[in-house]
Amino acid sequence: MLSVTSSGTAQARSATLEAVGRKPDPTNLTELRREAEKSSQALADATKALEQRQATLVKSDKELKGKLEQLRTANLELSKMRQPLADLVQSLYQEPSGGDIAPFFNGDDDASLRALSDMTYLVSGRDEILADAGRLSQEQQKLAAEAQELRATKLLVEAQLNVEIDTLRKRSATVVKALSRTLVKLGVRVNQGGRSGAACDPTRVSSAAQYPNGLLPADVLCPLQQKGRELRADAAIAFVALSEAYRKRFGKAICVTDSYRNLGQQQSIFYRRPGFAAVPGRSNHGLGLAVDLCGGVQVFRSVEFNWLEANGKQFGWIHPDWAYHSPFEPWHWEYDPKLGSLL
């Protein structure tokens, strides 16, 4: 029999609701991104819990149907058992000599004994039928109670989970909207180029990951502050946050010469710069996770380069090992999703 969700699970979900309900700093992009991801994960977990509960209820419904089928079979068996008794009763009432009690008074000893035997059988059969009927009645009442409890539990649990899911969905939407507003204030034209605001939604990264390298559609790429530059949502948000920290240090945003490259652009650069560009379809530029920088960063061991090397990891951005020597590309920087997820 199902029971309402355990106290431990309920407390865990309450804690999750409370955690994602806290208002993040509306100017901190990293915190906003983290809160959006938390809300999205909590929503996914609650939805999964509802699906699991519904699967359990479906299984219980099948078990209940099985019990009801057993009850139907038992009723048929009882009817079969009653039939001989019913036939005997009918034959006694059809006796021309006066029915079932007449033989006791006609002086025929054999007939009297036979009638007495029939009456004993009738009484015994009646008692058995009453006992079976009582058991069946109890079984029916038990099954009815189980069905009622099952349906009540189903409605209660689904209602609780639906409320939680609705709350989490609203919370997730609120955080993503706050994130989009902050990006707009920082000069990111979130809806440019026919994109929807969802292009800068970090919870939709999985939709970008399903496309091949260099073939990401515009609606999964988030624009940067620099005109014409774009990255995957999580990388873009982290880069804008990094650029704002850079601005506080150097008085200007990070200079960007290249970001996402589609497959055609990768092929063009590969043929123009053999040995310095990745094989088309294998570049992190084609995943929306890499940028080429200027404004001083492209000069190895410049003040700008050293600052970015020291501070980039705080935002998930790194200068990959290969770019230090083979080929030597101080201007090339990449977003590490694993590192970014830990921030």
Task: Give a description of the structure.
- By secondary structure, the chain is of the alpha+beta class.
- It folds into 2 domains: 7-185, Orthogonal Bundle (Helix Hairpins); 197-341, Muramoyl-pentapeptide Carboxypeptidase, domain 2 (2-Layer Sandwich), CATH 3.30.1380.
- The protein has 8 helices and 6 strands; from the N terminus they run ααααββαβαβαββα.
- It has helices at 7-21, 29-93, 109-185, 205-209, 233-250, 263-272, 303-311, 337-341, and strands at 221-223, 230-232, 255-258, 290-294, 317-318, 332-335.
- A 4-stranded antiparallel β-sheet has the order 3-4-6-5. The chain has a two-stranded antiparallel ribbon with strand order 1-2.
- A hairpin with a 6-residue loop joins strand 1 and strand 2.
- Helix 1 packs antiparallel against helix 2.
- The longest helix is centred in the middle third of the chain and has 77 residues, at 109-185.
- It is rod-shaped and about 130 Å long.
- It starts with 6 loop residues before the first helix and ends with a helix.
- The relative contact order is 0.09.
- Residues 1-8 and 96-101 have low confidence and may be disordered.
